[in-house]
Design a protein that fits this description.
Layout (H helix, E strand, L loop, with lengths): L13 E5 L2 E4 L32 E6 L5 E4 H6 L3 E8 L22 E10 H5 L10 E11 L6 E9 H4 L5 E6 L2 E2 L9 E3 L12 E7 L6 H4 L3 E2 L10 E2 L6 E6 L4 E3 L2 E10 L5 E7 L7 E2 L1 E2 L9 E9 L3 E11 L22 E7 L1
Parallel strand pairs: 3-12, 16-23
Antiparallel strand pairs: 1-2, 3-4, 5-6, 6-9, 7-8, 7-12, 9-10, 9-11, 13-14, 15-17, 17-21, 18-19, 18-22, 20-21, 22-23
InterPro entries: Ig_E-set, MoCF_OxRdtse_dimer, Mopterin_OxRdtase_euk, OxRdtase_Mopterin-bd_dom, OxRdtase_Mopterin-bd_sf
GO molecular function: heme binding; molybdenum ion binding; molybdopterin cofactor binding; sulfite oxidase activity
Cofactor: Mo-molybdopterin
């Protein structure tokens, strides 16, 4: 059995921009289910925030009966919840859209996975109460700056509808993989919203405000919105749940191979249910075979898969992978085109040559 890549050299993130810092994971180097912080992709709209004494306290205000400010120590003392989950940028794979779209040209590595530990938001609300007219929770971050479309200064802020905010697995996290959350990934507190794209999991959480209407901040109503029409905003709708998806980690695209036996490997994930099946095609989609799943699929986390390929003939091959989840969602042959390039989940495809 041939393995595609083994090395003592440690991989590094792939830089897209430095200010703000945006770097993606070399997805083909990931082994196992937990991504070390050094290989955790970085997605920022602004420069990293500065620390202050108030950084360690979290106020919950607005339409609650008893507004309260929680300290880090308060959160540590409350019942905790740990969730192993995929965190995927909604722009992951944007660089694969044809024709090309404007925005950060992510390839396949704006995705990570780890174990987040914290307190359910609904647990915190047991200490504040909730007014009946409450409709949304607004999560304000400490990072701020100018947007390209405005001269105004904005904090990164996003909202969740009350139903999603009160799900038990929506947590205020303070640990990642059994360590304090790394600063570049939201220390000391980060909202974690399993099943939704990463923009919902607000980093460097500053304040939570409960409101009785729809939040209209620019990262809610301009960005992170699907625009299916190029010329106008007709039919727009918000980016929320992660689409069913898969990625081939080995072999690499455009790799030269010798005749022999290879283990094709990859990951698959979804925001809705669990992965139930991964199929692979060696002949550009003409025929499909079922892959071996590494373990039982878990809610929120990716699953590793593999397929043993006997490469007995020389030539060029188009290898494809296609995931199906427990809700019946299947990767489409073509991506859902949208003007800002969110949610790419077309059937995965690479090309290799056997010499």
């Amino acid at each position: 059995m041939k393995h595609f890549y083994q090395s003592e050299v440690k991989p590094y993130l792939i830089t897209k921009s430095l200010n703000p810092e945006n770097q993606e994971t070399p997805i083909h180097f990931l082994n196992g289910d937990l991504v070390d912080e050094k290989l955790f992709y970085r997605r920022n709209h602004f420069s990293y925030p500065n620390f202050s004494s108030s950084f360690y306290f979290l106020p919950i205000v607005g339409l609650v009966h008893t507004p309260r400010t929680f300290s880090i120590q308060d959160l540590y003392s409350l019942p905790s919840r740990s969730i192993k989950m995929v965190l995927e940028c909604s722009g992951d794979k944007r660089g694969l859209f044809e024709p090309k779209l404007f925005g950060e040209q992510w390839e396949k590595g704006a995705i990570s996975q780890g174990i987040w530990k914290g307190v359910s938001l609904r647990t915190l609300l047991e200490h504040t109460g909730l007014v009946n007219s409450a409709k949304e929770f607004v999560f304000e971050a400490y990072d701020y700056g100018e947007r390209p479309d405005s001269d105004s200064i904005f904090n990164f802020s996003r909202s969740l509808p009350i139903e999603k905010a009160l799900e038990p697995d929506t947590i205020i996290a303070y640990e990642y993989n059994n360590q304090p959350i790394p600063f570049k990934h939201g220390f000391p507190l980060r909202l974690i919203v399993p099943g939704w794209y990463g923009m919902a999991s607000v980093k460097w959480l500053k304040k939570i405000t409960v409101i009785d209407k729809e939040f209209n901040g620019p990262f809610q109503t301009i960005d992170y919105v699907y625009y299916p029409n190029k010329e106008n905003d007709n039919g727009k709708f918000p980016v929320t749940t992660v689409h069913v998806n898969s990625t081939i980690q080995y072999p690499l695209n455009s790799q030269l191979l010798h005749k022999g036996t290879y283990m094709i490997k990859g990951i698959a994930w979804t925001g809705n249910g669990r992965i139930s099946k991964v199929e692979i095609s060696i002949d550009d989609g003409q025929t499909w075979e079922t892959c071996q799943l590494a373990s039982a699929a878990n809610k929120y986390s990716w699953i590793s898969w593999n397929y043993k390929w006997e490469a007995v003939k020389k030539g060029e091959y188009t290898i494809k992978s296609k995931a199906t989840d427990s809700q019946g969602n299947v990767q489409p042959s073509e991506p859902f085109w949208n003007r800002k390039g969110y949610g790419y989940n077309a059937i995965e495809k690479i090309n290799v040559k056997v010499e």
